[in-house]
Amino acid sequence: MKAISLTEPMAWAIFHGKDIENRTWPTKFRGRVYIHASKGFNKEHYRWICENNNRLVCGDIPFEYEFVHGAIIGEVTIVDCVQHHGSRWAMEGQWQFVLENPVLYDKSIPCKGMRKFFEPVLLCSKCGKEKREWDGLCQMCWEAYCSAEWWRTEGGLLA
Prior knowledge:
This protein has helices at about 10-15, 45-55, 140-155, and strands at about 5-10, 20-25, 30-40, 70-80, 95-110, 115-120, 120-125, 130. By secondary structure, the chain is of the alpha+beta class. The protein has one domain (about 5-125): Hypothetical protein (Archaeosine Trna-guanine Transglycosylase, Chain: A, domain 4, Roll), CATH 2.30.130. β7 and β8 (about 130) form a beta hairpin. The chain is globular, with a radius of gyration of 19 Å.
């Protein structure tokens, strides 16, 4: 599945009422995509959401330091791409990717972001190196963890 990066707080907003994503470019893509929260934080967007929350109806907005960065945080379906959408989130002069069925993950997945749509490159939650599987650790860290766990339970300390 492809992913798309957004700066915070807009990545967060998709799971709290934001029904479109504004882009300068159109897309023909339709279907599920991962939402990647980039390492960037847009203070102007944060201020705008805080000032307009009564009409945007996002609920409790996290403090700046509480947002997730550099990770896939959920997924959503892109069902259309239009201009002049009636959403409160639409920006004049932009293309709007119309979003439905957002699913926020309980646990974020570390991942490098890129521009436009991209295939996710997953990162080990311990060492930060690239990995292939969707679990938390790369092969080297997993092996180290398993051998240490075995030693604690089977090999002596707790045996």
